[in-house]
Amino acid sequence: xxxxxxxxxxxxxxxxxxxxxxxxxxxxxxxxxxxxxxxxxxxxxxxxxxxxxxxxxxxxxxxxxxxxxxxxxxxxxxxxxxxxxxxxxxxxxxxxxxxxxxxxxxxxxxxxxxxxxxxxxxxxxxxxxxxxxxxxxxxxxxxxxxxxxxxxxxxxxxxxxxxxxxxxxxxxxxxxxxxxxxxxxxxxxxxxxxxxxxxxxxxxxxxxxxxxxxxxxxxxxxxxxxxxxxxxxxxxxxxxxxxxxxxxxxxxxxxxxxxxxxxx
Length: 264
Known about the structure:
Elements: H1 2-6, H2 9-12, H3 19-44, H4 46-60, H5 67-83, H6 91-117, H7 128-151, H8 153-156, H9 170-191, H10 196-212, H11 221-238
Helix pairs in contact: 3-10, 4-11, 5-11, 6-7, 7-9, 9-10
């Protein structure tokens, strides 16, 4: 197990698959993400909606804000919504999201570094890279399976079965399949199992599905959410609330006391 965590699985792969093929595959996956995100933006007109709202906010804002305040709002958005997922009221859901998000970042960044800078055993891979790769994949699995089986709103609040699948679930399911197969492939490779190649091909297939399905999955939402959060902060600063009433200082309580949100 220790050797599995500290060995670069892509360096072992260099014998049957050349570094050039691995690097080309990674570049194609990056291209899938870029093309899919642009296509999604054009198809759903998200950018147009954002800029139309921005112009409307600047025109109808009750309180003018300067460049320094805009920069402050950018920093707040990056820290609260970006780094700490402050939009989630439920702490369990926030932890699951953070595990998945940071695990995915560790997993993707270390994959790129190992494939491009340490593709063969001729160049020793720093131990921290494969450790972070395995830890990142494991974090995704912990956060993702926790969310999928216990924290989803339709499962936790509506009592629907956890294995009910819709198109909106494509991103989380392909991500979980990819990281799970990555860990299984690395373990089988370290054990010298005859099933290593079969799992590796499934791992490649799940990678293509994960990054190739961006136009139809929620992958691109990771780019939209910070923009939407920033837009909301700007609107609030301008004194606009998108026709919503201002929050009450002491909201009336009808019947039993209100309980904090459990699923959002």
